[in-house]
């Protein structure tokens, strides 16, 4: 066994979920300054490891859905190293089995409760955790956000986040220096939600024309799809391909940033004047910089359980600062525009 003391953090999930855990991860790093910290990220979030600011960090990648080989590899790694603490910030069932076999390690776990007495892990496995917090998704009352819950799990020495910078300063790439406008609105197309709303290029043009009444330029991104279903956007708007640097100009004021990721994507969001996006990764990244965000929170409520589920998700993930707004988009694009005008006009007034 290695004599060097290690701490392990399991956080192999989506980028939006990673942003929710950043304060907790910084707590762990601050509380363990002389230990080597292994942080497991997923293939979805590994390009955003730069969001984690600290020393003695060893980033490793696990699939979002763990393979059998990966599970075996984790067990052998723990046996090999001198691990004192393990933080389960991604509540996958496999991780909660580990405390049974490694009794000398302190396990900190984020647990889930759900409707119909659903528990992950079960009450039996929770007994083996050194410390636990519960994200109660079955609650019918207002509850703490997942950020606050994870801070409680990891805040051993009562460290306050304002004592250090959460996000390291990042330099703009040459592509961003060349093509990023000075004043622009950032918009992200989430294809699944677009399809549910029945929106297409026509609705997008109507939306963009409204945005241009208030902002000089629009930078937009889209989900990276395996098919070419969304390539139609390249036929309508200027586009910059971040894989090869190719720029195709069609409309000067609207540019699609295609295949942008990692630090380039983060800086695109960071330097925008306004962010309008469907709830998820982009709104979470914007909240890290306390940007002016309009979160398009899509809901399809057909019964009481739907309402409770959406409300609980809102409490769990909603950022807490003045520049964050949200609205529920409508299939009717004109009605949606009427809803978003208030947030846009407020942002414009604040910038004047």
Detail the topology: elements first, then pairings:
Blueprint: E1 5-11, H1 15-31, E2 36-42, E3 57-62, H2 68-80, E4 82-88, H3 98-101, E5 106-114, E6 118-120, H4 123-126, E7 131-136, H5 146-154, H6 174-179, E8 184-189, H7 191-197, H8 201-211, E9 217-222, H9 232-236, E10 238-241, E11 247-248, E12 254-258, H10 262-270, E13 274-278, H11 281-288, E14 293-296, H12 304-317, E15 324-327, H13 333-351
Parallel strand pairs: 1-2, 1-4, 2-3, 4-5, 5-7, 8-9, 8-13, 9-12, 10-12, 13-14, 14-15
Antiparallel strand pairs: 5-6, 10-11
Helix pairs in contact: 1-5, 1-11, 8-13
Structural features:
352 residues, alpha/beta, Rossmann fold, 2 domains, 8-stranded mixed sheet, 7-stranded mixed sheet, 23% strand
Give, in spatial order, the strands making up the sheet with the most strands: 11-10-12-9-8-13-14-15
Q: Main β-sheet, in a few words? A: 8 strands, mixed
Radius of gyration: 22 Å
How much helix, percentage-wise, in residues? 25-40%
User: How far is the N terminus from the C terminus?
Assistant: 61 Å
What does this structure look like?
The protein is α/β, with parallel strands linked by helices and 352 residues long. The chain has two domains: 5-163, Rossmann fold (3-Layer(aba) Sandwich); 174-351, 3-Layer(aba) Sandwich (Rossmann fold). Helices cover 36% and strands 23% of the residues. It has 13 helices and 15 strands. Strand 13 (274-278), helix 11 and strand 14 (293-296) form a beta-alpha-beta unit. Helix 1 (15-31) runs parallel beside helix 11 (281-288). The longest helix has 19 residues, at 333-351. It is globular and about 60 Å long.
